[in-house]
Design goal:
With 308 residues, the chain is an alpha+beta fold. The chain has 9 helices and 15 strands. The chain binds pyridoxal-5'-phosphate (PLP).
């Protein structure tokens, strides 16, 4: 168990990031000049959708899956993307080229409802068309995340019901997750383990959550979490490789008795969990997490082989 503080998005410092170019509605500008209006719907209300993606060997990993989620999210909230997925890919390609980026690159693609004529909520006040911003950074997860693992604390903040703000939407507004993260930090942990409205273990504030018990891999039903692209890849890889995997309800009882636990997300792939609520996970051995990590790495290599 570690006493060093981590976030699941800790990356090695890369000085090249000081001079990156950011895409803002078709223009590529230095990060110091990259600005959106204070009247932008994203700034005023958190009214927008985003995707986190990674570039490996010149190829965006699981681009179609990210676009399926992005376009479905935008459609759900009547946010007109203003281009098709080929247009998005073109914007990504231009941004990567402007920054001479090929691998170990993380991208945050963000679309808001655009600039409003008044600082109020109604969507019809957004008159400019959407604001599309792409931030790409050189980004390699720190090695210590793999060895030390993440410390989780179960937090009072729960996942929402789908009829309030559906947690499947990857919206700009992440206040529910931010509050959970603050609570975890106050409890001396790195990230918050969030329950669903019924008290079953659901997900963390920034990643999806898995446990391993007697060779079986368990994750939540998916009803109250952001359905991560990495989460689905892990489920598919387990099925293909004969690892029993279940999407089911479970409680903290099963978490505290788990042999292994790990988080999934585009940035860190699979990040081991060292402790939950100050209790070490298992005996510290992580054979199943290690096997899944290898399968995922192979999949990325297969999908992104070649010139890209
Ligand atoms: C709340 C939350 N859960 C899970 C994830 C992981 O999703 P993915 O695997 O698609 O990166 C994210 C990533 O943005 C997230 O914000």
């Amino acid at each position: 168990m570690t006493t060093d503080s981590h976030t699941t998005h800790d990356a090695d410092e890369d000085l090249r990031n000081r001079d990156i170019r950011i895409w803002i509605n078709g223009k590529l500008v230095h990060r110091d000049e990259a600005k959106v209006s204070v009247y932008d719907s994203g700034f005023l209300l958190g009214d927008g959708m985003w995707e986190g993606m990674r570039l490996y060997n010149g190829t965006w990993a699981f681009f179609d899956e990210h676009m399926d989620r992005f376009f479905a999210s935008c459609k759900t909230v009547s946010l007109d993307v203003g281009m098709d997925r080929a247009g998005i890919l073109d914007a990504l390609t231009r941004t990567a080229a402007a920054n001479d980026m090929h691998s170990n690159v993380h991208c945050r693609l963000m679309l808001t409802r655009g600039v409003k004529i008044k600082p109020f909520q109604h969507p019809s006040l957004s008159r400019t068309g959407p604001t599309l911003v792409i931030i790409m950074e050189h980004s390699k997860p720190v090695d210590s995340l793999q060895s030390a693992g993440i410390r989780l604390a179960t937090v009072p903040q729960v996942r929402g019901l789908p009829m309030s703000q559906d947690p499947k939407l990857n919206s700009h507004s992440k206040l529910n997750c931010v509050i959970a993260c603050l609570q975890a930090e106050a409890a001396g942990a790195d990230e918050g383990l969030m329950l669903d409205p019924h008290g079953f273990v659901n997900t963390t504030n920034a990643c999806n959550f898995f446990i391993v018990r007697q060779g079986e891999v368990w994750t939540s039903t998916g009803d109250y979490c952001m359905k991560g692209v990495t989460r689905q890849k892990v489920i598919d890889l387990c099925r293909a490789d004969g690892i029993p995997v279940f999407e089911k309800n479970f409680s903290l009882f099963e978490v505290h008795g788990a042999d292994e636990a790990f988080l999934t997300g585009t940035f860190g792939a699979q990040t081991p969990v060292a402790s939950v609520d100050g209790k070490p996970v298992g005996n510290g051995a992580r054979p199943v997490t290690g096997r899944i990590r290898k399968l995922y790495k192979n999949l990325i290599e297969e999908m992104t082989a070649g010139p890209g």
